[in-house]
Amino acid sequence: xxxxxxxxxxxxxxxxxxxxxxxxxxxxxxxxDWPGGAGRPLPVHGFVIRHPAGAILVDTGVGDPRARxxxxxxxxxxxxxxDALAPLxxxxxxxxxxxxxxxHWDHCGQNAVFTHAPFVIQRREYExxxxxxxxxxxxxxxxxxRFELVDGAAEVAPGVRVLPTPGHTAGHQAVxxxxxxxxxxxxxxxxxSIRAYRDADPTQGAEPEDSDQWRxxxxxxxxxxxxxxxxxxxxxxxxxx
Length: 241
What we know:
Blueprint lengths: L19 E10 L11 E11 L2 E5 L10 H4 L4 E2 L2 H5 L9 E5 L18 E5 H8 L4 H6 L5 E5 L3 E4 L2 E5 L8 E7 L2 E5 L7 H6 L11 H13 L4 E3 L7 E2 L2
Parallel strand pairs: 3-5, 5-6, 6-7, 11-12
Antiparallel strand pairs: 1-2, 1-4, 2-3, 8-9, 9-10, 10-11, 12-13
């Protein structure tokens, strides 16, 4: 992968809009301090990009919740990644790359299924997570895992790039896909909801590690003038015009 600017717009795009598909990893329940109150189902989504070079999976869903206090707080109704991919006529073996937007438990929890594929992660995110001993390491530092650590914007495959969007975490990244109908941004948790993205309001979801960086990242995504924006915890898409 080569560093460079964010993905260009539709000219020369190799992908169709329909090549970007949502993956349903189940639900978690909002905790006490969540905007709008506790106990509301919050979807956990990943995304598949059907690329000519091979399928790209963005995030892998919720990890094993057994005996994990911080996971039990969210009471996940998790869906295994094989079951989540089956409605799209895909199996884990079909995935050529995994992009982790960040290394929280609901985004890298099933990485162990994909040791055949490299994990594309911002170097800062990986190093920050690796420095924190604990359960999350069990989900991304699995035996046989291969990491492609990137520093900033980078191309994963033609028409698919990662873009650093710190704020939610220090090394968070979004995915920018060039399609025949414009740019599609897979924002991860750069915004927890479409309302948070639309209003540039970090209070409409989990409190970011750095609110100023969060706002700057949302502004950077908006500056791309995307046709669509998808986030991981909201079934609604933002659409231009």
